[in-house]
Specification:
By secondary structure, the chain is α/β, with parallel strands linked by helices. It has 16 helices and 11 strands.
């Protein structure tokens, strides 16, 4: 007979898993141990569902999603490792934790090596250790969930781009412009930074630094190097470009995958192997400390060495002089020395995108300069980009907004 959690020690089953985001499923054949464990986990702020039989737990996993599954090992009918193996088939993203009263090294090794267990605890469990393990377990679940969502987005984006490229293959310049517009629509700031990187890379070309083929690769890669960011949440993109110091380690990890996503997208277009390779490598460091592959020196494709300097300068978020000083200081460490020397000759004419912030329509004030044109829902141009907002025109637009609500995001220059 299965046992749910009980309220105040009574015998009435109670499900405490509603009303919060992170549900935790506990499987423990000893009702008293189950109640003790459940009450402690619930006291740390997590929703709890507890049962005494693994088979009932497997039925519950068919109906509801949990961020974490905690189970005893020695149970009648099915041991914890076997249960977690079945649970993984039903909810592969859930983090799995095994608890046992026997501190058996063999069980621990089997649990970890099997790949079905995230963490192994012995009874009696320490409250501090269990709290830390649960916190890490739930964080891991959300990261896996986000990674899966991004992979689905990337797969869908790849499908759409593959279809588009079949139609646009004969007009490659048109395809590049489409990608520019796609990025600018997704994030106007992304569009502006891309243009700045393109301008710098264009100045690298024609100086005898690269072969003709490498210059072609650099030119195209400058346009597409950040296309992998289209798989990221838009809000995360804004933080990354405007306040990178506020990114969490998990967010940095997600952003750090965009060279791989970009490489995957570009590989769907024929004859762009060099571009895909350059996009993948444009965050590698000359000293081998970059990502995603830890390439160093000559192993880094030549176009990627120059793209790394251009993109780092534009995306640093620093004033031009300070950004250049930082790049010069990292010559022969982060950057190819010849690329830094070449950049020193052209950086004075390099354009940096002006800093912008996003506001609501009600926050728009006279004198502000739009970083993105404002349109009505019907497509009518209300305010053009780059023009200071006049008081009389703003009043007219406010009156228009009463009848036809403006739902454009509004970007203004700082």
């Amino acid at each position: 007979m299965s046992a749910g959690l009980t309220e105040n020690g009574g015998g009435k089953p109670a499900d405490r898993s509603g009303g919060t985001t992170d549900g935790i499923l506990i499987v423990e054949d000893d009702p008293e141990a189950l109640s003790l464990l459940a009450e402690f986990i619930e006291s740390t702020g997590y929703a709890v569902k507890g049962v005494t039989h693994p088979r009932e737990a497997l039925e519950i996993l068919e109906e509801r999603t949990f961020s974490c599954i905690v189970t005893d090992h020695f149970m009648p009918g099915m041991d914890g490792l076997t249960f977690l193996g079945e649970a993984r088939k039903k909810q592969p993203l859930a983090t799995r934790i095994l608890i046992t009263g026997a501190a058996s090294l063999d069980v621990a090794v089997a649990a970890i090596n099997s790949g079905v267990v995230f963490h192994f605890l012995t009874k009696p469990w320490a409250t501090g250790e269990l709290t830390a393990v649960l916190r890490n377990a739930v964080s891991r679940f959300h990261l896996e969930e986000e990674n899966e969502r991004l992979q689905r987005q990337t797969t869908e984006l790849n499908r759409l781009l593959e279809s588009a490229n079949r139609m646009l293959r004969e007009n490659f310049d048109h395809s590049l412009e489409l990608c520019r517009n796609l990025m600018a629509t997704f994030s106007p700031l992304l569009g502006k930074t891309t243009r700045s990187v393109e301008d710098i890379c264009a100045q690298f070309c024609g100086q005898g630094l690269l072969t003709e083929e490498e210059e072609k690769v650099l030119t195209v890669a400058a346009t597409l190097h950040n296309i992998g960011l289209l798989g990221m949440p838009r809000e995360l993109m804004q933080v990354s470009f405007q306040r990178p110091q506020r990114l969490t380690d998990e967010q940095r990890s997600l952003i750090g995958k965009h060279p791989l996503y970009g490489e995957t997208v570009v590989q769907f277009v024929g004859n762009l192997a060099g571009v895909a390779e350059t996009i993948r490598a444009h965050h590698e460091r000359w000293d081998g400390g970059g990502y995603p592959d830890g390439l160093a020196e000559e192993a880094i494709p030549p176009p990627a060495r120059y793209l790394a300097v251009a993109s780092s300068f534009v995306e640093s978020g620093l004033p031009a002089e300070q950004a250049f000083e930082q790049i010069a200081a990292d010559s022969d460490r982060a950057f190819y020395p010849e690329a830094v020397r070449a950049f020193s000759k052209v950086f004075q004419s390099a354009s940096l995108p002006r800093k912008v912030r996003e506001i609501t329509f009600n926050e728009l004030r006279p004198g502000m300069v739009l970083a993105k044109s404002l349109h009505s829902p019907a497509g009518l141009l209300l305010l053009p980009e780059g023009k200071a907002v006049r008081r009389d025109l703003l009043e007219k637009i406010r009156n228009h907004n009463i009848l036809d609500h403006v739902n454009d995001s509004i970007l203004v220059y700082l």
